[in-house]
Amino acid sequence: MQLHLYGGVSRYEPENIGRLFLPHEAITLLDGEPTATDEVTVSAGVEGETARCRLRLGAFDRTLEAPVPRGDALLALWGKPAEFAVSSLMYTLFCALFETTQPWGMLTGVRPVKLLRRLTAAVGEEEAARYFQETLCCSAEKTALARRTLHAEDAILRLSEPRSCSIYLSVPFCPTRCSYCSFVSHTTERSQHLIPDYVTRLCREIEETGAIVRKLGLQVESLYIGGGTPTTLSSSQLQAVMAAASTALDLSKLREYTVEAGRPDTVTEDKLKAILDGGATRLSINPQTLHDSVLQTIGRRHTVEDFYAAFSLARKVGFDHINTDLIAGLPGDTKDGFCQTLDGITALSPESVTVHTLSMKRASHLVVQGREEYDAGGDTPHMVSYSAARLTENGYHPYYLYRQSRCVGNQENVGWAKDGHDGLYNVFMMDETHTVLGCGAGAVTKLKCPEGEHLERIFNYKFPYEYIDRFEEMLRRKQQVVSFYESYGRTL
């Protein structure tokens, strides 16, 4: 796609609008007018107080214009009325070109519920919902989902205080790499030799982080051990990491402690006992699908029976909050197949279920190996709609929602839970409610201003070998946490 912008309009939102309709096409930003081509061409900008957009492809050649809105309290939250006006015209023209609409309308951000919350604070929920549908072109179904999620999230956010924080511990190792995954994780086949040194350093970073938490008077609300697949560690290694956390951190006020046991083929009774004895209150076991053929296609070596066995074992050991993750739109899956998976999961009655939509991430094998044109056709939206209806019928409510770029069908990821089993860390992290202190390779510490919205980030080294080799340097970075809080003139 060729994109020509003028009149001081920045590229961010217009490019995102283009990607809603052309997720796999490169976007070329032009200094001058687009040339004659078989590509989609857009020329858009502002002249005076008028926004204008022209969209061309083959015989389709249309231009729309509209006044740049001023003085709108809701629009002011976007901060760039000219960019908004141009994006709105682009969206309308793309809908006409492809004879379709997008379920989330013009919304391209990761956190639509956070936007809805800001709009609600400004004008009330009913007016905010109307704005979502009429101005942002969001469907009635997605607007209703955002509102339901907003109510659940608000109850969770009220638990957080200015001195609250959460802890994330990263274990970036997996048995194999799934075809859709772009996370920085290493297969144990290649990186097994790194794990002992990695665990030793992770425990030390936890110790250093605990000292910072005590110095600043922070209160740990939630703790999440993720990856990767933490259960690639042995039971003794899991014990060491969890013991380091319980020793270094005051967990007496902890509201939730999650450990991902994402791959069923890594789950054993001794590991589950180590996790439960270590203090975890929430376990995530992730089948993604209940069809062996789909599991093989996406590069997961476990079977459906492995998942059932792991789930049963977790119940036997004593876990009373188990989460399961599913993915809508996987290669080789169908609408009927996904519905069977969902039905199979609800029959087990896990306390929470997260339904993701497949995201075609650039660094994933699925894209890198030449399958970037993969699309589940019209099935994925039906899969997602079925999950919402079926889970609601079975007593689950949406408590957590976020979106990713290049999601098949432009859908979303939703956490569903039975009453009293919402995943708190997920909400705190996604809403950026309070500081999250990250430990381990690839972890990111997000520092939240105690009063206000300002955020700063501290990045750990991505790869396990970097984390091990440059560990002391990374620990020095961690002292930025102290200086961040001291810049506000106080500890908490």
Could you please describe the fold and organization of this structure?
The protein is of the alpha/beta class. The protein folds into 2 domains: 2-100, Double Stranded RNA Binding Domain, CATH 3.30.160; 156-478, Alpha-Beta Barrel (TIM Barrel). Helix content is 41%, strand content 20%. It has helices at 12-21, 81-98, 112-123, 125-134, 140-157, 188-191, 195-216, 235-248, 269-277, 292-297, 304-317, 335-348, 365-371, 379-393, 424-431, 464-469, 471-478, 480-486, and strands at 2-6, 28-30, 41-47, 50-57, 60-67, 164-171, 173-174, 186-187, 219-227, 256-260, 282-284, 322-328, 352-357, 397-402, 413-417, 435-439, 444-448, 455-459. It has a 9-stranded mixed β-sheet, sandwiched between helices. A 5-stranded mixed β-sheet has the order 2-1-3-4-5, with helices on one face. Strands 7-8 form a two-stranded parallel ribbon. α1 runs parallel beside α2 (81-98), α4 (125-134) packs antiparallel against α5 and α8 runs parallel beside α9 (269-277). It starts with a strand and ends in a 6-residue tail after the last helix.
Strand and helix map with partners:
Elements: E1 2-6, H1 12-21, E2 28-30, E3 41-47, E4 50-57, E5 60-67, H2 81-98, H3 112-123, H4 125-134, H5 140-157, E6 164-171, E7 173-174, E8 186-187, H6 188-191, H7 195-216, E9 219-227, H8 235-248, E10 256-260, H9 269-277, E11 282-284, H10 292-297, H11 304-317, E12 322-328, H12 335-348, E13 352-357, H13 365-371, H14 379-393, E14 397-402, E15 413-417, H15 424-431, E16 435-439, E17 444-448, E18 455-459, H16 464-469, H17 471-478, H18 480-486
Helix pairs in contact: 1-2, 3-4, 3-5, 4-5, 7-8, 8-9, 12-14
